[in-house]
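Database export, one record per block. Field names are fixed; values are copied verbatim from the stored entry.
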Amino acid sequence: MRMKKSVVSILLCCFVTVMSSQEVLTEKFDLPKKVNETSGLIFYNNQIITHNDSGGKPKLYVLDTLNGRVVRTVTVLNAVNEDWEEIAQDNDDIYIGDFGNNRGSRRDLKIYKISKTDFLQNDTISAKTIDFSLSDQVNFDASKKNNFDIEAVVAVDDLSLIHI
């Protein structure tokens, strides 16, 4: 599903507001054209990091928090953006959830794990891949009702948890 730039701006403002409850919601900026279908955001190293949704390039975009411009692009060499839905982080790593499964037919669900040290030092990086499946999904027929679409991931105490 495509998120409109204004909706993303509002969500970004909500994120900033939650981080400091004194802030008033205001639209800061439109997202750049490179980030035409953002699907997840984290705040790290005083910058916003995002990625595009399904079919996008396997890239992370680092945005300036004042004007929204892409200040850096990091390519994940050994990844494919089949359907990147979410991004999360813990103290040491960044996690990208490639587990969008709108039709319920995917058998290649994964989370890419990227070292923050590598991320800070390089514009091209490799990720560790965490392959997984949903044990209760036995039907992969795209024409059937689907309860196996994953849209979010949360990192808690250095343990990545998947939310469906």
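Remark 1: The radius of gyration is 16 Å.
Remark 2: The chain has two helices and eleven strands.
End of record.
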